[in-house]
Design goal:
single chain; 97 residues; mainly alpha; 5 helices; globular
């Protein structure tokens, strides 16, 4: 396996979020900020989306969208069409190209 084939490690905030959603407990504050969960509506919509996915694939998908409210919203709406908008604290920061 080459260095390019090495999977990127999953960030702790993502793991904690997925664990919380599966266990039906409120995520830690960092995960709330990183994934734009401002209330029960976002939590429930994200939980429904996560429960419909395959865990490892979902974990990688979530990690790839950490801090990007538009990506989170689009992904969740694939499973919950009327899901609320997600906005993270990172959305207003410049993105790396």
């Amino acid at each position: 396996m080459s260095a390019d084939d090495t999977p990127t490690p999953i960030r702790p905030s993502t793991r904690r979020l997925l664990d919380a959603l599966i266990l039906d407990i409120w995520p830690p504050h960092a995960a709330l900020v990183d994934f734009g969960i401002a209330g029960d509506d976002q939590y429930r919509a994200l939980q429904i989306a996560v429960r419909q996915g395959e865990t490892q694939a979902t974990l990688r998908e979530l990690d790839a969208m950490l801090g990007d409210g538009a990506k989170i919203t689009a992904w969740v709406r694939r499973f919950v069409p009327d899901a609320p908008q997600f906005t993270t604290a990172w959305d207003s920061l410049p993105r790396e190209e």
